[in-house]
């Protein structure tokens, strides 16, 4: 069971916006950077957002990250079919001294 | 081009051992924290272990403490994972991942390059 909690699924139609949440606790999200990974079926994970809201080179600005208190969110605007993937949040935990991954959210583009 | 190529996976019996390797190229390996992350069949990502650029700092998941050992050889641009006392629940694809470092500062959990993974199956 993940200490970072994500909804197991999310969906939207092309062009819509969707938000995926990541809920943690006082020992992880508030005091450490939150990162988001995208994993398309059959492929390796890809860094999508780092340091809460930064995008690596090549990641479209349709993807944005935010953090407030013990929660973080990944927002995707202008949904496209190629956004269909699993999305994972990750953060360091000060008490457990481990990197935590959320359980993952499967995004379906209807 | 940044490349990470894992090797060493395979089928092993419970209680057995394996040594995974990750060959890095296309970047200054000795300047980055490195990580192993695994994914059991049909499951999510699980961080396994991290090692700092000069091997000074090592962190591990509780699930592998005392059984797995991470190491690196900066002269060979290689990362390793020695796995002992393997269990069925260690069955997974094991990914090598580069830590994102900016000006010598690296935050654990930020991994900006990943290999394709190597599969470890623990079964009798």
Helix content, binned percent of chain A: under 10%
Name the quaternary structure.
heterodimer
Number of helices of chain A: 0
Decide which structural class fits the backbone of chain A: mainly beta
CA radius of gyration of chain A: 13 Å
**H and E order of chain B:** EEEEEEEEEEE
The value of Rg of chain B in angstroms is 14 Å
Q: How many individual helices of chain B? A: 0
- The chain-level mean pLDDT of chain A equals 96
* Apparent shape of chain A: globular
Please provide the ordered H/E string of secondary-structure elements of chain A: EEEEEEEEE
Q: Give the overall form of chain B.
A: globular
* Uncertain runs of chain B: none
Distinctive features:
heterodimer; A: 110 residues; mainly beta; six-stranded mixed beta sheet; three-stranded antiparallel beta sheet; 9 strands; 0% helix; B: 124 residues; globular
């Amino acid at each position: 069971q993940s200490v970072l909690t994500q909804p197991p699924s999310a969906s939207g139609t092309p062009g819509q916006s969707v938000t995926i949440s990541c809920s943690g606790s006082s020992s992880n999200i508030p005091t450490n950077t939150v990162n988001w990974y995208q994993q398309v079926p059959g492929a390796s994970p890809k860094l999508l957002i780092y340091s809460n809201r930064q995008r690596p080179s090549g990641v479209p600005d349709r993807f944005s990250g935010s953090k407030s208190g013990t929660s973080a969110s990944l927002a995707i605007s202008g949904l496209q079919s190629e956004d269909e993937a699993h999305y994972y949040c990750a953060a360091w935990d000060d008490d457990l001294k481990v990197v935590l991954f959320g359980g993952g959210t499967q995004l379906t583009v209807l | 081009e940044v490349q990470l190529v894992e090797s060493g996976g395979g089928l092993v019996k419970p209680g057995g051992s394996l040594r995974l390797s990750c060959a890095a190229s296309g970047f200054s390996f000795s300047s980055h924290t490195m990580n192993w992350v695994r994914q059991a069949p049909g499951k999510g990502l699980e961080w396994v272990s991290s090692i700092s650029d000069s091997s000074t700092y090592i962190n591990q998941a509780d699930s592998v403490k005392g059984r797995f050992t991470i190491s690196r050889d900066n002269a060979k641009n290689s990362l390793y994972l020695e796995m002992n006392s393997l269990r069925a629940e260690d069955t997974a694809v094991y990914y090598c991942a580069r830590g994102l470092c900016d000006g010598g500062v690296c935050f654990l959990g930020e991994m900006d390059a990943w290999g394709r993974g190597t599969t470890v199956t623990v079964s009798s």
